[in-house]
């Protein structure tokens, strides 16, 4: 069987898992292989709550952030920071909480220093929560997907410090940022911290359905045998794809290519912003990832303009992503050449 393996082992699975653990940071001692990003983030939700139960916390509280996106299934949508995206569910898990995201146009550098602590203290008072007893996890993206907007580094350090003090696990959703996209192996590495749980997909295999959850043995061994499985998980085709994909990224220097050409990409995009500053207000991202945010002089979103730009670019052979909001995302192949990158920018 090439696609249906359930929990049965294979040589391909063993070789990939061994290589994956060898090539990733030391705290990631075990990995769980599944098929989609939403499965991975829901697995992280489960692990954070199981860890909270092990510590005998009375509630399975999870902190998430406004504007974030974590998947299409119910638990992932509960964690998503867009109320309209989870409205179909009909109710909100009372133990999943959302804090404001520190957007740079709303929070200045001085405010960032205590932004997280101030906002979580308000939440704790409003909901009569004790963080030592009622919170067990924090779910973060490496950046907000819709605009490639990274958190301020001080903010992330504040989150990590708080979590360590309160025995709260921190999970990073790296579906869009993992495996070299931002000029680092993982997006969280830009912050100089180490999360407890890592959720990856997309770039893990570059096309074949594969997602990954990694953590310590202590966390990954929390579920009983048989309670973490999936029909297509760790099938040989996905494992070979994941293995060869990671080997190519590392051996062919694609992370370095993302970093180096990322500087060029952002330099050229900022030149576009300078020329069309009445419409293009922000350029975000790192490495071969960029988000262009379009608003008018009053700060109102120019969503239809993003439609027009994306369509015209498509007609001229350039694929870019209109996110559905006032932004366009650019994420060229990690193996792109300088000439091809400049050609794409010239079309834009």
TrEMBL record:
Q: Which CDD domains does the record match to this protein?
A: OAT_like
InterPro entries found in the cross-reference section = Aminotrans_3 (IPR005814), Class-III_PLP-dep_AT (IPR050103), PyrdxlP-dep_Trfase (IPR015424), PyrdxlP-dep_Trfase_major (IPR015421), PyrdxlP-dep_Trfase_small (IPR015422)
List the cofactors: pyridoxal 5'-phosphate
| Keyword Transferase attached | yes
Q: Which GO terms describe its molecular function?
A: identical protein binding; pyridoxal phosphate binding; transaminase activity
Q: Which UniProt keywords apply?
A: Aminotransferase, Pyridoxal phosphate, Transferase
PANTHER family reported for this sequence: ACETYLORNITHINE AMINOTRANSFERASE, MITOCHONDRIAL, AMINOTRANSFERASE CLASS III
- This protein is called Aspartate aminotransferase family protein
Q: Which organism is it from?
A: marine metagenome
């Amino acid at each position: 069987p090439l696609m249906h393996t359930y929990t049965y082992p294979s040589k391909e699975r063993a070789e990939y898992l061994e290589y994956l653990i060898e090539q990733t940071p030391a705290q990631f001692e075990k990995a769980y292989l599944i098929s989609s990003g939403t499965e991975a983030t829901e697995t992280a939700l489960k692990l954070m709550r199981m860890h909270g139960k092990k510590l005998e916390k009375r509630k399975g509280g999870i902190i998430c952030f406004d504007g974030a996106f974590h998947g299409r299934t119910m638990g992932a949508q509960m964690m998503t920071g867009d109320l309209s995206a989870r409205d179909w569910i009909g109710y909100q898990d009372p133990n999943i909480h959302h804090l404001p995201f520190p957007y740079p146009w709303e929070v200045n550098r001085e405010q960032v220093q205590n932004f997280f602590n101030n906002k979580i203290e308000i939440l704790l008072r409003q909901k009569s929560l004790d963080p030592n007893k009622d919170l067990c996890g924090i779910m973060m993206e490496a950046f907000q997907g819709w605009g490639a907007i990274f958190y301020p580094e001080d903010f992330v350090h504040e989150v990590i410090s708080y979590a360590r003090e309160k025995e709260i696990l921190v999970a990073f959703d790296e579906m869009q940022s993992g495996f070299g996209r931002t000029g680092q192996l993982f997006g969280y590495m830009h912050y100089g911290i180490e999360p407890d749980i890592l959720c990856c997909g997309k770039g893990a295999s570059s096309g074949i359905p594969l997602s990954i959850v990694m953590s310590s043995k202590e966390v990954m061994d929390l579920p009983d045998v048989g309670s973490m499985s999936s029909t297509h998980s760790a099938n040989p085709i996905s494992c070979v794809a994941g293995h060869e994909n990671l080997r190519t990224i590392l051996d062919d220097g694609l992370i370095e290519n993302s970093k180096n050409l990322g500087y060029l990409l952002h330099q050229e995009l900022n030149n576009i912003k300078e020329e069309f500053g009445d419409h293009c207000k922000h350029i975000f991202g790192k490495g071969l990832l960029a988000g262009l945010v379009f608003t008018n002089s009053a700060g109102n979103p120019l969503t239809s303009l993003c439609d027009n730009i994306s369509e015209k670019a498509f007609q001229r052979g350039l694929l870019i992503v209109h996110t559905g909001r006032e932004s366009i995302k650019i994420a060229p192949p990690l193996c792109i050449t300088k000439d091809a990158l400049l050609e794409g920018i010239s079309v834009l």
